[in-house]
Amino acid sequence: MRRKIKISFLVFFVILGLSLALLLAYIQADARFIMPVKNASRNDYSQKSMGSPRVGHKHQGSDIFAKKGTPVLSATRGIVIYNGILKLGGKVVLVLGPDFKMYYFAHLDTIMTTKLHMVEVGEQIGEVGNTGNAKSTPAHLHFSIRNFFPYKQGSYEDPVPFLNKASRR
């Protein structure tokens, strides 16, 4: 009986491992990066906002300003690992993309995706808004990139170099 249970667990973990390997291969197969706000340009975000002081924390990302309701697009291929409401970010979507990077889309007016959905580059995942701690600011997308593995405190990457090279849709 114990031997059957051990074999069942072994089979389960082998299948789980293969599934994760296939998922990562799928995500890595298309590592393109696009501007996450439709029709945004360099004029719509600051080149120097990463790390700027905020009340109780540092700004870990870039704010891309746009009209409320403007489509927010997945910047890369990946899997939605969270969508919901957070205190600071308001309505947010978190996508796990190539190279174990997490792409965080915050202050959305509307979320248009579901958890565990495989998103394609340029797929609409929401609309620009000013939810969370951005209620008193003009509508914008707070966009940040964080390393998932290895996960450590302060593992945010400045998204501006990615945004500057991003293709537009």
From TrEMBL:
Domain called M23ase beta-sheet core: residue spans: 58-147
GO molecular function, one term: hydrolase activity
Superkingdom classification of source: Bacteria
The keyword Oxidoreductase appears for this protein: no
Pfam family, one: Peptidase_M23
Keywords: Hydrolase
UniProt xrefs under SUPFAM superfamilies: Duplicated hybrid motif
EC number in record: 3.4.-.-
InterPro entries in alphabetical order: Cell_wall_metabolism_enzyme, Dup_hybrid_motif, M23ase_b-sheet_dom
Protein name, as recorded: M23 family metallopeptidase
Organism of derivation: Aquirufa esocilacus
